[in-house]
Amino acid sequence: MDWFLYPAIIAVGFIAGFINTLAGSGSLLTLPLLMFLGLPANVANGTNRIAILLQNIIGVGSFKQQKVLKFRDGLHLSLPAIAGSLLGASLAVNINEKIMGQVIGLLLVVMFFIIILKPEKWLKAEDKNIGSSASWIQMLIFFFIGIYGGFIQAGVGFFLLAGLVLSSGFDLVKANAVKVLIVLLYTPVALLVFMYHDQVNYFIGLILAIGSMMGAFVGSRLAVSWGPSFVRVILLLALLGSSLKLLGVFDFLFRIIS
After folding, report:
1. Helices (H), 93-201
2. Is residue 206 part of a domain?
3. Burial environment of residue 120 by CB neighbours within 10 A (0 to 12, 13 to 18, 19 or more)
4. Number of domains in the chain
5. Which of 17, 19, 154, 230 could make an S-S bridge to 226, C-beta 3.0–4.6 Å?
6. Are 150 and 85 in contact (CB under 8 A)?
7. Is residue 204 part of a domain?
8. Torsion-angle region of 133 (φ positive above 0: left; ψ -120 to 50: alpha; else: beta)
9. pLDDT tens, N- to C-terminus, the chain (258 residues)
10. CA distance 241 to 226
11. HEC states along 189-240?
12. What is the DSSP string of 10-32?
């Protein structure tokens, strides 16, 4: 691999780690990059999990240090997400994700308008206190989110944030802290599935993780210091860009221009 690709991988990893920590869908940047480097789609999907795991270790540590994360807040919701990720990763080693990506793109458009029309839901915590227990509906929601996260990861942060804000009452800063904890706990399960099927490039994954960890640190600091309103703006921008990407709008515009 040419030397100049290393800083490029780190730079993309930084952006992805930053976006993932504040919103989600950073994998829409890293997965195309990994495939551009010559990795098959399934190997790119598995390799990406190394960066996801390490960036969320940094994110969890940073949110914990800033006293906006209590581990008990996410543990009960992590269990169904872990179970779902095992199923999702098992499906991902063999299934083409193109159709699912288009469906997810439509869902992200819907979520974009929900955030615009009901901003108060995302900016102010309702203190529902799910730390000690979670309803069966919440468990079911996070099980299906876990399936998607295990399957492809890209965009899972949006669904975790929606579940944490709309069904659990967190504001966006606290929801982001709990989100990175949940992703941290289920990612090793998904990664092990890809490792078992020999679909991980460890060297490139670690290079990508260098940038991802730095991006996660910066993102977690800005989330706390700038507050929910700033996170909401980043979330809306990420949602819009991700939905257009998944629906193929960018590819369509590129074909027209070229």
Report:
1. 98-117, 119-123, 136-151, 156-162, 172-196
2. no
3. exposed
4. 1
5. 230
6. yes
7. no
8. beta
9. 788 899 999 999 999 999 999 888 788 889 889 989 999 888 998 999 999 999 999 999 999 999 999 888 788 889 999 999 999 888 876 665 566 556 666 767 776 776 676 666 555 655 555 544 567 888 898 999 999 888 877 778 888 988 888 877 788 888 999 999 999 999 999 999 999 999 999 999 999 999 999 999 999 999 999 888 888 888 888 888 888 887 788 888 878 887
10. 22
11. HHHHHHHHCCCCCHHHHHHHHHHHHHHHHHHHHHHHHHHHHHHHHHHHHHHH
12. HHHHHHHHHHHHHSS-THHHHHH
* Domain range for 12: 7-198+212-257
Find tokens 């949940």 and name the residue: 182
Is residue 215 within 8 A of residue 48, CB to CB? The reply is no
- Distance separating alpha carbons of residues 28 and 152, to the nearest angstrom: 10
Contacts of 38 (CB under 8 A, 6+ apart): none
- Compute the distance between CA of residue 74 and CA of residue 163 in angstroms, rounded to an integer: 12
Within a domain: 103: yes
- Tokens 């974009």 label which residue? 112
In a domain, 207, yes or no: no
Cα 258 from Cα 255, distance rounded (Å): 5
* Nearest-angstrom CA–CA distance, 19 and 234: 8
Question: What's the first-to-final CA gap in the chain, in angstroms?
Answer: 29
Residue among 201, 110, 112, 93 at smallest CA distance from 152:
93
The tokens for 208 are 């990508």
Closest CA to 164 of 202, 128, 111: 128
pTM here?
0.83
Q: With 0-12 CB in 10 A as exposed, 13-18 as middle and 19+ as buried, what is 80?
A: buried
Amino acid symbol at 121: K
In one-letter notation, the amino acid at residue 71 is F
